Amino acid sequence: MTPHHQSFATLASAFILACTASADWSTSATAPTTLAGGVGEQSQPKILPIPSGGFYMSFYSSTGLGYDMMLARFDSAGNAVWGAPVMVADLSQSSTQDYGFAVDEFGNAGLAFRDDRTPVVQITAAKITLAGSASWGPGGAQMTANTADSSNSPKMCSLVGGKFGVGWTQGNKATVQRVSATGGKEWLIPYTMSDGTTAGFTCSDVKDDGAGNIIVAAVRAVGFSGAKVLHAQKLSPLGVAMWTSPTAPVFSTGSLQFGNSPPFIADGSGGAIFCYYLTGPLQSWVQRLGGATGARMFGTNGSSVTSTTTNERVSPTAVWDQSANRIYASWSEHVASTSMFGIGVQSFDGTTGARQWGNLGVMAAEMETVYSYTWAATGLTPSGPVVFFNRSTAAVNSDVRAQRFNAQGVAQWSTPTTLAQNTASAYRLVTSRVDGEGSVLLWEGGDTGTNDLLGARVGDDGVLGPAPVSNPADRNGDNLVDGVDLGLVLAAFASSDPVGDADQSGLVDGSDLAIVLAGWGG
Predict the structure, then answer these.
(1) Cβ contacts of residue 496 below 8 Å, gap of 6+?
(2) 3-class SS at 437?
(3) How many helices (DSSP H) and strands (DSSP E) are in the chain?
(4) What is the 3-state secondary structure (H, E, C) of 80-149?
(5) Does position 6 have pLDDT exceeding 90, yes or no?
(6) Once rounded to an integer, what is the mean pLDDT over residues 141-161?
(7) How many angstroms separate the Cα of 341 from the Cα of each of 132, 314, 345, 365?
(8) How confident is the model at residue 12 (pLDDT cuts 50, 70, 90)?
(9) What is the pTM of this model?
(10) Does residue 439 have a pLDDT over 70?
C-alpha cells in the first residue's frame, strides 16, 4: 500500500470538515450555495436527478495527493444527505479527463473514470447505492486489462435492470462494454468501432436507446489534421451493430473543432439527437438520427441554429421535449474580431428539424461589448427552455445568469435572473430539473487550483432560493403523495435522512410515516 492510500482516512476526515453538510438553496446572488469546497480544487461537476427525489453531484477533488473521484447526494432543497461526499476512488493523477456518470432506475449512481490505482492505467466503473456504499467493492469493476494501449475519457449510461453501458477510447478506437447489475462484463469481447480504414475513433458518448440497446457516438479522424466527423452506432444487448454498416455519420461535410467530443440525447424512440458546432465557419447545428436505421432526419448536414454565418456561434447545448416534439438549443454568439458577445436560443421541430423561432432565433442575452458570454447551459421547464450562461466583464469577474422562454420563444422574465454576482470566475455550468417548480444549476467557481463547486436553484418564476413550502407528505416533490413517498420514509426509517424526515425533527420515525399516510393521494 502506498503512502497515498495509507492517508485515505485522514483525507476523508479533512474533506468531511471542509464540505457543507447542510446547504439549502441561497436566496442571494452574492452568496450562492457552496456544495463542495475546502482545501484544493473541486472540479468538473456533473448533476443527475435521483428517481426518488433529490440529485447526485459527481466531481473531482484535489483535496488529497491527486484528483480523486467523488460523489455527493443532495435532497431537492440542496441539503447534503450523506453529510459529506463519498470518495469513489482515491487516485494519484495530477490532471483530469472527462468521466462517465449515470443513474439507474433504482437510484444507484454509476461512475466510469480513468483509474491509476493499478500498475497500468485502466478504465474502472463503480456503482454507488443510495446509502453511499460501493456496490461493486472499493476497487470497482475494471473495464480494461493491462495493456500498452492508452485508455481515456470514459462515458457511461444506465440500462434497464440496473445494468450499465460503458464507452471509452482504447488506443485510437472507440470501445464499448455492457456491464451487469453486479459489475460483470457481459460481452466477452467489447465492441470496437471501426470502418476498415486507418481512421481513429474517439468515444464521445454512450446512451441507452430506451429498449436496452446502447447507442455510441465517436469522433472519426484520419491523422491529426483530418476532418473530425461525428459517427454513431447502435448495439444490441449481444453487442451486435444494428445501424448502417460500418457507422452512421451525423453530418456529411465540415469538421468539429480539435478536441471537441459533443454528447448527445437519446430521443426516447430508439434514436439520438446531436448538438454540435463546426469550423469554417464556426456555426452550431442539430441533427437527429432515426431509431430504426440511424438515418439522418434533418438532412445530410443537420439543421443550423440560424440561416446566416455572419456571427460565430459555438459551444451549443440542447434539451429534448419529447411530448412537444421540440429541440431547444442555446449557444455563445460572437461578432468575429470584436468584443461583441451574446447568448442565442433556437427551437426546432423534432421531426423535420425546421427552425421554429425565426431564422436568427432569439437572444437570452443581447449582443454587447463585454469580455465574454460563455458556458450556455440549456434546461427544460414544463412550458419551454431555461438558459443559463456566464457573463464576464473581465477574466476574473463573472455573473451567472438565466432566462426562461415559453414554447413560442418569448422571454418569461423581464430581465435575466442573476444567480451569482461578481464572482472570481464561473465555468462548466451544468443544470438539471430536481423538483416540479424550478431548476438547479451547478458550476465551478473561484481561482485555478482552489475552485469550489457552487449551486443555485431558480424557480420557474425567476426567484432564487428553495421551492415554496409544499405538502410535507410529498417527500419527492412531484406534487403527489403515493407509494414513492412512503418508500422514501421506510427506506430512511430510524435515520436522520432529510428525504424521509417529513416533520423535520431530525429523526425518521412513526410521526413521518403518519404524515405520509395522512396525506395519501394529495
Answers:
(1) 506, 507, 508
(2) coil
(3) 4, 32
(4) ECCCCCEEEECCCCCCCCCCEEEECCCCCEEEEEEECCCCCCEEEEEEECCCCCECCCCCCEECCCCCCC
(5) no
(6) 90
(7) 43, 11, 14, 9
(8) very low
(9) 0.88
(10) yes
Give the residue carrying C-alpha cell 455550468.
429
CA distance 85 to 421: 27
Return the CA Rg of the chain: 22
Q: Reduced to 3 states, what is the DSSP secondary structure of residue 518?
A: helix
Contact partners, residue 471, CB within 8 Å, separation at least 6: 479, 481, 519, 522
Amino acid letter, 341: F
pLDDT at 308: 96
d(CA 438, CA 448): 30
* Domain 471-522 indexed as CATH 3.65.10.10: no
CA–CA separation, 28 and 203 (whole Å): 40
Q: Where are the domains of the chain?
A: 471-522
Within a 13 Å sphere around the CA of 353, how many CA atoms are in the beta-carbon half? 21
82 CB burial (10 A radius; 0-12, 13-18, 19+)? middle
Per-residue pLDDT tens over the stretch 164-205: 999 999 999 999 999 999 999 999 999 999 888 999 999 999
Answer whether 305's CB lies under 8 Å from 285's CB: yes
- Asked if residues 324 and 311 have their Cβ atoms less than 8 Å apart, the reply is no
